[in-house]
Amino acid sequence: MGKDYYAILGVAKDADDDTIKKAYRKQALKWHPDRNKNNAEEAKMKFQDVGEAFEVLSDKNKRAVYDQYGEEGLKGGGPPPGGAGAGGFPGGAGFGGFPGGGGTTFSFSTGGPGGGFRPFHPSNAEDIFSQFFSAFGGAGGGGGGGGPGGFRGMDEDDDFMMGGGGMPGGMGGMPGGFGRSAGGRPSARQQAQKPPAIKRPLPISLEDLYTGTKKRLKVTRKLRDASTGRPVQTDKILTIDVKPGWKAGTKIRFPGEGDEMPNGEAQDIEFVVEEKPHPLFKREGDNLRTIVELSLSEALSGFKRQIKTLDGRTLSVSNANSVIQPGQVSRVPREGMPNSKTGQKGDLLVEYKVKFPTSLTPAQKEAIKNALG
């Protein structure tokens, strides 16, 4: 049995556009993965379902197909077995070039078994979410700019949408119009399917993630010549301001900066931060961990070491009054990574590795016995 999009959003089958938008806002905020760290898998699935339901019910053409044929008919490229006549509608009624809104055109025909419409493929739920709240003024409880206690919808550690853009499937205009013209007809942008984003890794050193930096990336893209229609290569410099504290997995998206497709739509470019391995430090959330090797003598009698920090300072760690155990960890407050949202730094965790001698002379053994009793 297919999904019940109305039940997913919690609306009646005769719900109007405003009701559907309000329901989506409520459910999307409720199930956003950033708000459900303890049940991330369930939240991810429900969040995707909520986005899918909104994408269908907010588009009158998709909604009409769904109401008549359900999810299976909408996604399967035609009505369920026995659900309609030869043309995909009861009695074989035919409609040609019927626009599907969200980048998909439903082409209903009066033909035989070969008729039907193109299957619906749901957009990425995060794209729907971020562009919905970008278009409708933030994700704060009052629908404004996300004031105190408001959820902005885009976690600064996870995703940065650079630039504007409409809702996937052309739902990106003003709240009242949903990307349609005054006459209610879909715009040309609505009818063009959004091409998939180009995703590329962005390796960044731990030093740059600690201090922040500016990355300038040269992108070679293909655009169509206005006179010939043929693709031509052009270069463009994209600038990324790396914030202190960014983590691996942070995404930076440049809408429309990729190759131009035959339908006139340009691909988005999305960079995903990768953290380069560091010879001295390992990141653990906002903390840093480093290993200091000690001889057995130093572990028993004391030591002093200098550690060079990620921003070039010299940090002194020492011990003179206690015995260091193998694997023991000492904590240096506020010498870890900065948090990109709060600016507060984590701690530096210094783990000690004690090197034991491989052999001892009889005299050394006797001296140790005498010293340790």
From TrEMBL:
One BP term from GO: protein folding
Keywords: Chaperone
Example GO molecular function: unfolded protein binding
InterPro entries: DnaJ_C, DnaJ_domain, DnaJ_domain_CS, DnaJ_subfamily_B, HSP40/DnaJ_pept-bd, J_dom_sf
Superkingdom of this protein's organism: Eukaryota
GO CC, alphabetical: cytosol
Residue span, J domain: 4-70
Pfam families reported in the protein's UniProt record: DnaJ, DnaJ_C
UniProt-annotated stretches for the region Disordered: 71-91
Keyword Plastid: no
Entry-linked SUPFAM superfamilies: Chaperone J-domain, HSP40/DnaJ peptide-binding domain
Name of the protein in question: J domain-containing protein
Biological source species: Syncephalastrum racemosum (Filamentous fungus)
